[in-house]
């Protein structure tokens, strides 16, 4: 079985049982819903205790349980073709240069981690149509200036 086939099996079981992602995440628990759903969709891995819970919930074999614990090949073809995912891509394409400039001005020469990262998503009621509120928080990782001579900083933190 390939990982994509396991994802399809999980989606079939979800559909057959009429389960929501919220229900599934409440049964598996242990970490952010984004990470649990991402793992079940093949983009993240579940640690062994959570892979075991997922396997029990979905009635998966031992081999399938181990697959949930493997580090996946992450990502999707670019640009994304799904309209909702494409809008996130569009957000980065349009706003990315401004985000980069503002982050660098505040923190220095580096990046925001997508590994040491938190995300929360909530529904925000609005009379003109409910809104999706996404909060992202990533650790700032300064570039290391290797081969630097004495008096040259080791890292790209904002200079005073």
TrEMBL record:
<comment type="similarity">
    <text>Belongs to the cyanase family.</text>
</comment>
<keyword id="KW-0456">Lyase</keyword>
<feature type="active site">
    <location>
        <position position="87"/>
    </location>
</feature>
<dbReference type="InterPro" id="IPR010982">
    <property type="entry name" value="Lambda_DNA-bd_dom_sf"/>
</dbReference>
<dbReference type="Pfam" id="PF02560">
    <property type="entry name" value="Cyanate_lyase"/>
</dbReference>
<dbReference type="InterPro" id="IPR036581">
    <property type="entry name" value="Cyanate_lyase_C_sf"/>
</dbReference>
<dbReference type="GO" id="GO:0008824">
    <property type="term" value="F:cyanate hydratase activity"/>
</dbReference>
<dbReference type="InterPro" id="IPR003712">
    <property type="entry name" value="Cyanate_lyase_C"/>
</dbReference>
<dbReference type="GO" id="GO:0003677">
    <property type="term" value="F:DNA binding"/>
</dbReference>
<protein>
    <recommendedName>
        <fullName>Cyanate hydratase</fullName>
        <ecNumber>4.2.1.104</ecNumber>
    </recommendedName>
</protein>
<feature type="domain" description="Cyanate lyase C-terminal">
    <location>
        <begin position="74"/>
        <end position="146"/>
    </location>
</feature>
<comment type="function">
    <text>Catalyzes the reaction of cyanate with bicarbonate to produce ammonia and carbon dioxide.</text>
</comment>
<feature type="active site">
    <location>
        <position position="90"/>
    </location>
</feature>
<feature type="active site">
    <location>
        <position position="113"/>
    </location>
</feature>
<dbReference type="InterPro" id="IPR008076">
    <property type="entry name" value="Cyanase"/>
</dbReference>
<dbReference type="InterPro" id="IPR048564">
    <property type="entry name" value="CYNS_N"/>
</dbReference>
<dbReference type="Pfam" id="PF21291">
    <property type="entry name" value="CYNS_N"/>
</dbReference>
